[in-house]
Amino acid sequence: MINLLQISEILLFYFLTLSVSYLFVFAVASKFYHRRKYPLTEKVKRFAVLFPAYKEDKVILQSVTSFLQQDYPTDKYEVIVISDQMEHVTNEQLNQLPIRLLIANYENSSKAKAMTLAMESTALEEYDMIVIMDADNTTTPDFLQEMNQACNAGLQAVQAHRMAKNTNTSIAILDAVSEEINNALFRKGHVAIGFSSALIGSGMALEANWFRKNVKLLQTAGEDKELETLLLKENIYIEYLEHVRVFDEKTQKKEGLKNQRKRWIAAQFATLRTALPYFPKALFTGNFDYCDKVLQWMLPPRIILLFVIFVFSCLRSIISLQSSLKWWILFSILVFTLIIAIPPPFFNKRTLKAITRIPLLALIMLTNLFHIKKANKEFIHTEHGNQSL
Question: What residues contact 349, with CB distance under 8 A and at least 6 apart?
Fold first, then answer.
């Protein structure tokens, strides 16, 4: 029995060490990220800008109105709002704007269904690129111009730098920090080494014909991960433009964060299951971008990684301080990894206060692992407005 426990601990330690090592490598690599400068061009591509909006009455008008301020020829982009279960008055207000409004009323709503409807409804329209935004997203007036330059350089998939619009609660701060860590590890770090950037679900542009063909294949709430799988399977590189910013409203309450993360975990597991069968072929054909993505999806969530390593470090300290040393070293490396991935503006008292919520969130995340069935079929909806903890 003792030997079995020791073997289990050794196997767990090596798995967690590999997970931490993976994160550490890309955290360090993110410090060597350099922006690729794409030349100005007279060629102007035509964009379709999709705003899937499920019960987003509070934010959709502001987001769309803001986007219409683009410093880009108005005949070279079309904003398409897919209104799903929004109020009549909201739709009437949207109809007053120079956009295309599509009305959806699905029994089981999803972003994938909304985007598919947009492509079916514009089958006769000619677009060069499809931009996907969330209903609460805003951006800068040069967004399409920057995308145009990158896409004219031959890129078929581009991810902008999505960042927090709000940090008004401790949960929102942690959500914002988590997203910036993702930006460092899975976008800046990956691109710096030569791998593709991860997609994030919004603030991204994809080649129109490719998107039309593949959007109908999306089935889960993790449409960004499904799109990554499809892109990388075809060896299509995903660029990351850190200087092109998209502002996203962060979850403000722990209940919202719990539901959001539950759907994300479910979507990650579902995508991993579908991606694994192609892994051997990708490995033997040299598609290491695809292989890296599969390995990335095998990693446990960072907050669970922190919690588990910390708990084992404490337990081992009680049994034998000497035997706990390797666990504390691993924990220190993980903490250091996360620190170097966090942007300097977040190093303040408010963030330190928010960090005290991590143990509670870790427990919530652990319970999520037992309640993820069918969660990846639901529309990921962020609650909006000023809310207290």
Answer: none
- Where do runs of H (alpha helix) occur along 31-142? 60-67, 88-95, 111-121
Q: What is the pLDDT of residues 135-176, one digit of tens each?
A: 999 999 999 999 999 999 999 999 999 999 988 888 899 989
Alpha helices in the chain (DSSP H): 2-30, 60-67, 88-95, 111-121, 143-152, 170-182, 189-193, 208-214, 223-233, 254-275, 279-284, 288-298, 302-319, 325-341, 349-355, 358-368
Segment 272-316, tens digit of pLDDT? 889 999 999 999 999 999 999 999 999 988 888 998 999 999 999
Could you give the count of Cα atoms lying within 13 Å of 135 in the half-sphere of its Cβ?
A: 26
Q: What pLDDT sits at residue 389?
A: 33
Burial class of residue 318 in the structure, from the number of CB atoms within 10 Å of its CB (0-12 exposed, 13-18 middle, 19+ buried): exposed
- Residue for token pair 């995308």: 147
What's the pTM?
Answer: 0.90
Using an 8 Å Cβ cutoff, are 200 and 278 in contact? no
Side-chain-facing half-sphere of 354: CA atoms under 13 Å: 21
